[in-house]
Amino acid sequence: MTIKKLLIANRGEIAVRINRAARELGIATVQVYSKADKDSLAVRLADEAVDIGPPQASKSYLNQAAILAAAQSSGADAIHPGYGFLAENAEFAAAVEAAGLIFVGPTAQSIRLMGDKVAARKAAASAGVPTVPGSEGRLESADAAFALVERTGFPVMIKAAAGGGGRGIRIARSAEEFHHLMPQAQAEALAAFGDGGLYVEKLVEGARHIEVQVLGDGRDVIHCFERECSLQRRRQKVWEEAPSPSLTQAVREKLCASAVALARAVNYRGAGTLEYLYDERTGEFYFLEMNTRIQVEHPVTEMITGIDLVREMIRIAGGEPLRIRQDEVRVSGHSIEVRINAEDPARNFLPNPGTVSALSLPGGDGVRFDSMLYQGYTVPPFYDSLLGKLIVHDRDRPSAIGKLERALAGLGVEGISTTKPLHQALARDADVQAGRFHTAWLEPWLEAHAASLAMTSPPPSAKVTP
Hints:
Layout: E1 5-8, H1 12-24, E2 28-34, H2 41-45, E3 48-53, H3 64-74, E4 78-80, H4 90-98, E5 102-103, H5 108-115, H6 117-126, H7 142-152, E6 156-160, E7 170-172, H8 175-193, E8 198-202, E9 208-217, E10 221-233, E11 236-242, H9 249-265, E12 269-279, E13 284-291, H10 298-305, H11 309-317, E14 334-341, E15 343-344, E16 350-351, E17 358-360, E18 367-371, E19 386-394, H12 397-409, E20 412-414, H13 420-428, H14 430-434, H15 442-448, H16 450-456
Parallel strand pairs: 1-2, 1-4, 2-3, 4-5
Antiparallel strand pairs: 6-7, 6-8, 9-10, 9-12, 10-11, 11-14, 12-13, 14-19, 15-16, 17-20, 18-19
């Protein structure tokens, strides 16, 4: 079942990343693209490219029929969904396999089970993995939800059962807030995911966001240690690192063992990530959800372990067993990734698509820039604002932060505003350098530093000198 030709059903930097991994394995690539992406780097790098529709994602990257038709017409025998779009769509995974093609990822059954947060919580409890106190199942009515909240106490999080990316979440600190926010959360969940089901869980304040990378072949599972993802704006990650600066070795071992236990319980295949809240005050951790795909932040794990996760998931999808034993996975040094978005930190992170008039990239040992950029490329306004990810690796965390500062100084993107000034300010911050932060830390920090960010953010047309 070796893969010979891989269709990449995504765009941007992850499409470029998948293309390079496939080419290193000797696999030909087919890149699908919308009309807005016809000049993208992913299209330029692929062996073949197929137009699948207009710029709107609903008519192109989310058009299952168009993607399957592109695979069949090009002779591809496998499809890699990347992240976002159809990556965690169980129906698409099933349709790919029904068409006689290989889906590079878990089975439709695993996606369906772990993609529903309530079902995932139940699976975690069955595997002995701790979960945040909350509802055992979906809560279809406000009355049932409030009866539960009266038992758990405030504050609580109201969350979409089928949600992700911070959508459909509300925090209630009183009964009055709860009754006001519950219908809002339900309406947003229905609009965003076509599913108004909700669940409620206790809010763990001041928690860290820790996730564990796993690899499985449907029979066995290993972990590749954890990542710290606590620096978030509006529940969207902006800075990730590995290993976590907040875990003791004893907690790390328990956390990673719990992730393996849960992934094994669902016979997981491919690369996946289990997300947790960690209460640093008590040393307790709680399972949140599983992402049944490759993550944006996977490079930091690759840098500290030397494992190419994208290549491994392609190999596994092609029928190869896990070729890495758990005792062979070792952590070396420290890695940090920052997301470079086409957003203006000085204007409340306003999206800033446009043409990259000049581009200069940092280099040197332990510096990596995964991106979709080239000089003259016009960033379209239709999609996520992520341009690329700057990743550094060094012997320890202080050295990695120092290397990140130097790499950011060497990154020049002219013609559009980016989040580079934000990351430069974070790298210089004493609390960040000491690892003193949590999931609610960044937004108050941004308010306090708005003026200084405005001073350091050049206008889009200004020359950025590396």
